[in-house]
Amino acid sequence: MKEPTYLRPLRWLTISIFLVMLVVYRLTENYLNRNLSTGWATFLSVTFSLIGIAILLILVFRVIYGQIWKLTLSQKKHEEISGLLKRSKDELEEKNIVITQKMNELKTLDRISRAMSSTMDLDRILRTILEGVSKHLNFDRAIICLVNEKQGFIEGRQATGVAGELLSDLKIPLADEQNPIVKTVRDGRPYIIARVGEGGMRLEEPVSRQVRRLGSTLQESKAEVNSPPINRGGTTSSQKGTYGEIFAGLEGRVNAMASVPLVAKERVNGVLLVDNLHSGRPIEEEDLRSLVTFTNQAGLAIENARLYDTEKRFSEELRHQVELAKKELKEAQAHLIHSERLAAIGEMSVIVAHEVRNPMSSIRSCAQRIHKTVEEKDPNKKYTNYIMQEVDRLERIVKDMLTVTRQPKPNLVEENVNRIIEEILLHMDDEIRKSGVVLIKELDKNLPAVPVDPALLEQVILNMIKNALFFMQDGEKKELKIATSQDKRFLQIRVSDTGPGIPVHNRKKVFEPFFSTKPQGTGLGLAICQRIVIAHKGKIELESEMDKGTTFIVSLPMKRIREKEEKRGQER
Amino acid sequence: MKKILIAEDEEVLREVFKDELTEEGYDVLEARDAKGTLDHLSKQKVDLLILDIKLPDMSGLKLLERISKDYPTLPIIICTAYDTFKTDYEIWAGHIADYIVKPVDLEVLKEKIGRIIG
User: Fold this and answer.
1) Which of A16, A315, A449, A473 has the CB geometry, 3.0–4.6 Å to A414, for a possible disulfide?
2) Chain A closest CA to B35's CA: distance in Å?
3) How far is the alpha carbon of A428 from chain B, nearest alpha carbon, in Å?
4) A297, A315, A333: which is the final residue of a domain?
């Protein structure tokens, strides 16, 4: 610092005055010595001398003061410079810390975002996010809640440091606009949920504008700073699945938790809740800043995973649909082939039947004529009999073939099924007894009459009984059980044998035409039975257990049910 | 002696029927087609006609209509290889006395004839 400029002329003025006074003093002394008395002269001389000394002293002091002033000035300057230095050093250090922090943050972010983008699995991404929050951002607890727009809820999906029940209970309707978590979703900006008194909460917006800006990628800015306290009083802790729950039982330990939106493409996918339960460390602006930077990244990863998930689910659904359609097509094709096959057989059968029946008729009639002429004891009688029997068998085959390809048209009359069964058993009495089979009848005496074609139903029951007898031929236990029963909708006829049973892979096939395990079977019997039963609007099923036996169950609709169905059919 | 006309294109069957019915004491005439059948009917009085519904030269229904128009009192037994005849019976019912489905049991045939003209 320079000496003030006004002092310079003053200094020269003082010296000049001193010199002038010295000259004046000498001149005056000479004059006085010459003109005045010695007393006056001495007096005046002393006075001037004193004034001169005073002025001299003033000058000397002035010089000394000037030096001291200069010294103080330089000292001040020095202090100022060292202060400046210190301040810039501090600033540098501070900046250094910030940069290191930022670098660490970036590194962490990079690591986490790399981990996040390495997978499209939402749960894995959420785990990575939580790991990042707890390990790198040093929060004790963290919960990720995801928005379920379809159901109108925001629900806890994954958490770290939080009990499972708490997470599964965390389900907040999006309509609950007072809820801070919902508010975070709606406003798309971070909040600090601070504890106020007993169970009360207050929402606070981050003070730092930077954090606010970072957090709010949405364009809306509806949120008020320092929203009024909400849910004050004891109601919070009783609310299931709200933040009150989260705070419950943490008396005096957690004072605040941060609620940060997980945003991507201007859409809030969820909320990240964090707090410091164990350390009790308050959530600082700085923490929130890192958190927000981090959640912006996390939000994108979640969005990507969600999109991927949606697409995956869509393609899976599509694949499923295609598979289903394929299966249906295959079934339809099989059905078509089956019906086409039947139709072709039908056409063929009509032609073949006619062409075959003529020579068959000739053979039979010839045999009959020979048979008549042969003596009873003659072995030829047996052979002519065989010829006629075989022709009859051929005729049965032809008839079956014609029947299976034709849609049976039942001529319905109301008939008691028990009576039909009794009649069949009467006819077959001999055959059953000869085969050594024990017959068990369990006929429901209260069976009502149902609409059936007696001739067709007889064919069905006869077929089932004949099958049962055939398959018990070589068995040790031979029991034929015929039972009838009823429920509200159906009348049931059950024909059970104690035969070898039907292997699982054959259980569906037995109703297919031309499937037979009998050496002389045409494989048409059960196919015809099924067609007859279906023509009665009933169903035929089987239950079988290997080495135990088989039961065929014919269910015929009760009169009332049948009429109802017919009515419905007509309405359609 | 009752006269029976057998109209049947199957030669063996016709012959067997003839032998059986002759033995039974009927006077049996034979025809192999519609033309032969109509010829026989125009030449003499026949007591019963056993008619195969599918003759080579004329449709069964047409022939039947013609015969029943010209000879309304002539009893006819239809002999057919179609077992659907049972369901078609209504169409023929006004024209015929009975029907029999091949392969024919001679006893059944004789029983039917006996019932009609016996």
Assistant:
1) A449
2) 21
3) 23
4) A297
Return the CATH number at A221: 3.30.450.40
| B81–A357 C-beta distance less than 8 A | yes
* C-beta atoms of B16 and A365 within 8 A: yes
Reported ipTM:
0.84
Contact flag B17-A395 (C-beta cutoff 8 Å)? no
Question: Tens digits of per-residue pLDDT, A434-446?
Answer: 889 999 999 999 9
A508 with A440, same domain: the answer is yes
A378 found inside a domain = no
pTM of the complete model beyond 0.90: no
The B-side interface with A (CB below 8 A) comprises 10, 12-13, 16-17, 19-20, 54, 81-84, 101-107
**Using the beta-carbon criterion (under 8 Å), do B13 and A357 form an inter-chain contact?**
no
Q: In this structure, are A203 and A142 located in the same domain?
A: yes
- Distance from the Cα of B68 to chain A's closest Cα (Å) equals 25
**Residue pLDDT, tens place only, A301-334:** 888 888 888 888 899 999 999 999 999 999 888 8
Question: Are A382 and A438 in contact, with CB atoms under 8 Å apart?
Answer: no
Q: Are B107 and A368 in contact (CB < 8 Å)?
A: yes
DSSP letters for A455-522: HHHHHHHHHHHHHHHHHTTT-SS-EEEEEEEE-SSEEEEEEE--SS---GGGTTGGGSTT---STT--
Domain carrying residue B36: 3-117
d(CA A288, CA A191): 9
Q: How far apart are CA A506 and CA A517, in angstroms?
A: 10
